[in-house]
Amino acid sequence: MPDYAQRISAIAATGVFLLGGGWLASLASPISAVVAPYGNSELRASTETPKSGAQAPAILAKAEHQPSLQRSMTVRISGVRSDSGSIYVFLYDNEEAFTRYDIERAVDFRKINASSRTMVLKFRDLEQSAYAVSVFHDENDNEEFDLSAGYPLEGYATSGARSAYHEPTFEEASTRAEAVSLSMHYLDL
Fold first, then answer.
1. Looking at the domain covering 4-24+69-183, what would its CATH class be?
2. In the predicted model, is pLDDT for residue 93 greater than 80?
3. Residue 188, number of CB atoms within 10 A of its CB
């Protein structure tokens, strides 16, 4: 298992790839414009009565058996030491992705302007699953999580962490709660 410095380094390294990939993805048309989401009411809105013995079209049967995407999670972030830079928030539903801080495999992520006030974000349309939350403060907005000798120079927080030096397992960090509160940690190096 990677140590804490390696995990933080992985966040920084993959952050650059995510930001570049996000820009590239923004050039393409959104997939939702091409593929209708599961459970779309338009797929079920047929007024025709099937003939006796007829089966519902396969797409209708498939849409009716998809998991409900009605869960949401509110993330509250406090303890941000300045209004400088950006805050990155990642949701993970996978132990390996969380352990490696593989932000490309995060279920969702947000980049917001930093604020020393408590920040509140709401993630919507989540599957009924447990999620771990990882946050970092890119205080100088260089799109990297800055380190010195393997120690973070910028703020970070992880759900389930009991202190700045506690590296929670996915089991400790993941939750099914509707709201998660995190307090940022800054190491004075």
1. mainly beta
2. yes
3. 4
